[in-house]
Amino acid sequence: MLTSYKAVPPRNVMVGVGSALMDICLLESEYFLNTAGAEKGGMTLVESSQIPELLKKTGKKPVFVPGGSACNTTLGIGKLGGKARFIGKKGNDEWGSLFESGLRRHDVEPLLSSSSTPTGHVLSIITPDAQRSMLTFLGAAAEMDPSEITGALFKNAALVHLEGYMLFSKELMLSVLNAAKKSGAKISLDMASYTVVEKSRDFLQTIIRKYVDILIANEDEARVFTGQRDEEISCSVLSELADIAVVKMGSRGSMIGRRGNITRVAAMGGGALVVDTTGAGDLWASGFLFGLLQGFSIEKSGQLGSACGFEVCKVIGATIPEEGWLRIRKQL
User: Fold this and answer.
1) Could you read off the pLDDT of 269-308 as tens digits, one per residue?
2) CB under 8 Å to 34, separation ≥6 — which residues?
3) How far is residue 326's CA from residue 330's CA, in Å, rounded to a whole number?
4) Residue 266 sits in a domain of what CATH number?
5) Which residues are CB-neighbours of 29 under 8 A, at least 6 positions away?
6) What is the model's pLDDT at position 270?
7) Structural domain includes residue 247
8) What distance in Å separates the CA atoms of residue 126 and residue 128, rounded to the nearest whole number?
9) CA nearest to 90, candidates 189, 22, 24, 136
10) Distance between CA 97 and CA 20 in Å, rounded?
11) Which of 39, 78, 229, 281 could form a disulfide with 84, with the two C-beta atoms 3.0–4.6 Å apart?
């Protein structure tokens, strides 16, 4: 039992902090991806005009769902039955209202500040190989100010989960990390994207050692950060920096390092029925972190993560339908 992570009332809330974004999921060709200027498998920041222009060039119908890495993970915690809260910033517009109502439908407490700037949105271009490449307009999400981060936001927090995209604002990231640590909560960080890691490697080294208890990366992020191509070596290196380190490898499963031990967890489904990988890593984190907060073993928490990651790959976007959640809950 991982008593150091198990949520015990009143400290039993998982708090996600990150960008409040609407996801625009579009199934398109490799050719469209190349002409869009997106980096395959990565995340590129764009101006607000670029996404509407690209949508005019496709004959495909996009799917709109609430998104953002930390938000996706928090929504999953809520659907699994955990007490969850999300902190972010939205615009005073229809997308902002849809985003907030989406949180409530997933039993997540919204703590959202507002701006006259439009709600941020992401065009996720999903190619036939089920890989997603993102063009992101942060909008109001980029205006979250360090002065808005107070200790009250983290009341009764057992775990505070952050997304690597916050590294684009070092002052904000440090403000959240300091407030979360002061609250007594454990801190988890998802590296989010290898492009983010490339731009923030030195700063990441500093904050992981000082603040982060649970570090989550995929194989590309781990490789860029550690300089190691072997995932087991990468996992071992990361586990020297944080109490628990995760390297997700998609259809090859995951590795979880803690105190010199590496636990291997198989992926579910064997790659079958994969439609879209959008949110797969985020929902994997939902299952894994929920398991830790329940006091499950590393292996069982990883298996729950695999179940959540597999179910979201069956649909377009990062929202698991209710029948998927029913299958996941049966494993609990």
Assistant:
1) 765 678 888 889 999 999 999 999 999 999 999 999 999 9
2) none
3) 6
4) 3.40.1190.20
5) 127, 128
6) 62
7) yes
8) 7
9) 22
10) 11
11) 78
Q: What are 225's two structure tokens?
A: 């950060």
pTM above 0.70, yes or no: yes
For residue 224, the one-letter residue type is V
Dig out the tokens for 252 from the structure: 């090859």
Domain span at 235: 14-19+70-111+143-327
Cis peptide before 62 (omega within 30 of 0): no
Residue that is written with structure tokens 């989960």 in the block: 161
Q: How many domains does the chain have?
A: 1
Residue 60 maps to a domain: no
Task: Report how far residue 195's alpha carbon sits from residue 277's, in angstroms, rounded to the nearest whole number.
Answer: 17
Burial class (CB in 10 A: 0-12, 13-18, 19+), 38: buried
Q: Are strands 63-67 and 21-27 parallel, antiparallel or unpaired?
A: antiparallel
Q: Among residues 24, 132, 134, 22, which one has the least CA distance to residue 88?
A: 22
- Grouped pLDDT means (10 residues each) for the chain, 332 residues: 78 96 92 92 89 93 89 96 97 93 94 96 91 92 95 97 93 97 97 91 96 97 96 96 96 94 90 77 97 96 96 88 92 76
Neighbours of 198 (CB within 10 A): 12
Burial of 272 (0-12, 13-18, 19+ CB in 10 A): exposed
Tens of pLDDT, residue by residue over 192-205, are 889 899 999 999 99
Assigned token pair, 288 = 């894994």
* d(C-alpha 305, C-alpha 298), whole Å: 10
**C-beta of residue 267 within 8 angstroms of C-beta of residue 255:** no
Q: Strand, helix or coil at 41?
A: coil
